[in-house]
Amino acid sequence: MEKEKISDIVKNVKDKPNKDIFECRDFLQIEFEKTKQLIIDLTRHLETVEEYYETVNNEILNRIK
């Protein structure tokens, strides 16, 4: 669904037919779940990168001493 169509439905929800409202709702629900999963996956990735960085950086600091 196009961004403009979603915006139009949301702005004029009371004047839109049920078909458009249900279609919009279904699309937004799917987008929400996909976005939420992406955030979770990216958070896990970021935590792993941070952990690896700390491990490598600590070893470098120990070798410099």
Topology:
Blueprint: H1 3-11, H2 18-64
Short note summarizing the structure:
The protein is an all-alpha fold and 65 residues long.
Describe the structure.
By secondary structure, the chain is mostly helical. It has one domain. 86% of the residues lie in helices and 0% in strands. It has 2 helices and no strands. The N and C termini lie far apart (59 Å).
Counting DSSP E segments of at least 2 residues, the number of strands comes to 0
pLDDT < 50 runs, ≥5 residues: none
Give the fraction of residues assigned to helices.
Answer: over 70%
Structural class: mainly alpha
Radius of gyration: 22 Å
Query: CA-to-CA gap between the ends?
Result: 59 Å
- Taken from the alpha-carbon principal axes, the silhouette is rod-shaped
What's the helix-strand series?
Answer: HH
- The total count of helices amounts to 2
Q: Provide the number of structural domains.
A: 1
Give a quick account of the main beta sheet: strands, pairing sense, barrel closure: none
